[in-house]
Amino acid sequence: MQFHEIRFPAALSFGSMGGPERRTDIVTLSNGYEERNTPWAHSRRRYDAGVGLRAMDDVDEVLKFFEARRGQMFAFRWKDWSDFKSCKPSETVAHGDQTIGYGDGVTTEFQLTKTYRSGDESYTRNIAKPVSGTVLVSLAGDPQSEGVHFEVDLARGVLIFDRAPDEGRDITAGFEYDVPVRFDADRIHTSAASFQAGEVPSIPVVEVRL
Questions:
Q1: What gap in Å lies between CA 158 and CA 151, rounded to an integer?
Q2: CB 13, CB 78: distance < 8 Å
């Protein structure tokens, strides 16, 4: 994976527009009923980085970032200000936010995940890019210490325990995270005149699968 472990300037992603998208194939039958199927098990997120720009210096910073990523070539981290915590945006990350697995006495690696629930339905999303220093972990409610009891692979979003959790012990975690994205175009169109007139460039970015 061609990925640079660097975050798009968070101050510029603030105010951007975007969110998850899904792909649904819909066939309308002759009797008027529908058949709906999806080839995607997971959603994909899209954003417009241009909306967060406020001044020409912001444009300059984005151009530097764009050139350093070689346009669409290298993916990078993106902070989605509406969805970047294991808890609600208004809450503080805590050890028990998300249940990510159960010990079996053998497995030492566990993927960070976030579960979205509504009614009786839920969707579990793998978190591949946790933010350094924000990951909290508990085993059966007992807080663990990073660097002593576990390590975090920040490139994969995987917890690595020094010893396999005992069978049946629930593993919970709280964390902040970024979205792995790339630019969705190999060019950026902007000018000082149009920007000063209140127009902002469209700079699309799209989530990548890891």
A1: 8
A2: yes
pLDDT, tens digit, 9 for 90 and up, residues 110-163: 999 999 999 999 999 999 999 999 999 999 999 999 999 999 999 999 999 999
Contact residues for 161 (Cβ-Cβ < 8 A; gap 6+): 108, 109, 110, 144, 149, 150
Using a 10 angstrom Cβ sphere, with 0-12 exposed, 13-18 middle and 19 or more buried, the burial of residue 157 is buried
Which residue spans within the chain are E strands per DSSP?
A: 3-7, 17-21, 25-28, 34-37, 44-48, 75-78, 98-102, 109-111, 113-118, 121-126, 129-130, 136-139, 142-144, 150-153, 158-161, 170-174, 177-183, 204-207
Q: How many CB atoms lie within 10 A of CB 155?
A: 14
For residue 116, the surrounding DSSP H or E stretch is strand 113-118
- What is the identity of the amino acid at 189? H
Instruction: Tell me, yes or no, if the pTM score tops 0.85.
Output: yes
Of 142, 181, 184, the C-alpha closest to 165 is 142
Coil vs helix vs strand at 152: strand
Q: Which of 61, 27, 62 is nearest to 48 (CA)?
A: 62
Sole residue written with tokens 């576990």? 150
The model's confidence at residue 108, banded by pLDDT at 50, 70 and 90, is very high
Which amino acid, one-letter code, is at 85? K
Residues 34-61 pLDDT 10s: 999 999 999 999 999 888 777 778 888 9
Q: Name the token pair of 76.
A: 């990078």
Residue 49 contacts residue 16 (beta carbons within 8 Å): yes
Looking at residue 52, the DSSP 8-state letter turns out to be G
